[in-house]
Amino acid sequence: MKKLNVLVFPCGSENAGEIAQSLRYSLHVNRLIGASSCEDHGRFHFADYIGDVPFIHAPNFEAYFNDLLTTHQIDVIFATHDTVCEKLAEMDALEGCYLVNGDRLTTRIARRKSLTYSAFADADWLPKVYQPGEKPKSWPVIVKPDCGQGGNGVALAHNDEQLAQLMSSVDMPVVVEYLPGRELTVDCFTNRHGEVVWAGPRTRERVRAGIAMRSQSVPLDEEISAIAHEINAGLTLRGPWFFQLKQDSHGRWKLLEISCRVAGTMVAQRARGVNLPLMALHDFMGRDVVPLVTPHVTVIDRAIKTNVLTSLQYQRVYVDLDDTLIIDGQPNASVLAFLYQSRATGKSIHLITRHEKKPVDTLNHMAISPLLFDEIIHLQEGQKKSFYITGPAVFIDNYFPERLDVAQQKDVLVLDVDAVNFYLA
User: Fold this and answer.
1) Is the omega angle on the peptide bond into residue 136 within 30 degrees of 0, that is, cis?
2) Residue 150 pLDDT > 80, yes or no?
3) Together in a domain, 94 and 21
4) In angstroms, what CA-CA distances link 136 with 140, 165, 166, 178?
5) Domain ranges, residue 88
6) Does 165 map to a domain?
7) How much is the average pLDDT of 171-182?
8) What is the mean pLDDT of residues 165-193?
9) What burial class does residue 410 get, using C-beta atoms within 10 Å of its C-beta: 0-12 exposed, 13-18 middle, 19+ buried?
10) What torsion, rounded to 10 degrees, do the Cα atoms 98, 101, 106, 110 define?
11) In terms of domains, do 355 and 273 share one?
């Protein structure tokens, strides 16, 4: 079977980054393309990046997008935002592409909490939903936007006055009972036969901007499993999707929302061995997918990652040996990763050092192949490294006087060891 061209749109979000990480090494992917309508972190997520897509409500969006699909021969599309997913699902022609979880009615229901609650109105796991003008029987109540996500715009009303204020300030407000208990996200996967083959509950222990930065796996009990299967039976799903639950005052799980896209912290499942975006590709290719779960991972914790984009179009990388490539008697994994990354993109690699022994002997002793380097420059005491460096280039050295000297050269980006991580893909 041919390798697939996969498009992720928009590509700058956390869940887009998770799709990129999930698929970047897949042997079944020919091209992994990220596209966005504005300049964002997608440029760092995706080496194959398109940054000038019109916004989805622009008059020329559909024509541009269909042309993009044809030009790049896209086979599979991951939509990473609920509104975008709904928009793409509504398009009459996607040039024969497969939109993951792209059922038109399902994307519309999942995008609006009012439609979600209406679709499952008879379920005992639905929170009490107050109709317009209906006076709450108990306080407080939750007011949330109909098309919100990630907890954005959610507010608590403790009385009639606060409720009236929120009803006038929240966009398309929905009023539901207050759920005081703990909260879970349940990452799911439905195969092409309509079967739920994975449901993995996880906690949301530390949340920033609606994204769980710390998450712990929770056993799938009968109650949560039943909810997953009832949602799956009531909608047309295929691929990764998720829903969020919160406990009421009696400890019963109640639905917050459903989404038919990859979640920002679905990485928690991949860390356990369950790569949901990759499973979507196998399912698309007609293969039966079986989750292979490792029992040894239960908690993931995340932090902000910083990438740097340099305007210098460098062709060479020069790197020091002592306390740079080798630190405390061990190879520096970050520097090595950068060297291999640079080599893969056609840069020449140069070792430049005043090492007291033969550099090749030390490299071999550290299990670093001398063949990694296009050139090994072994300086004598008193010789300046700047004399041997030609820009445009990157120079990595832990010693400030060396960096200061080399920085006087034209078109040379000098880096201390700690800064190398900024440039790792």
Assistant:
1) no
2) no
3) yes
4) 9, 15, 14, 11
5) 4-99
6) yes
7) 92
8) 93
9) exposed
10) -140
11) no
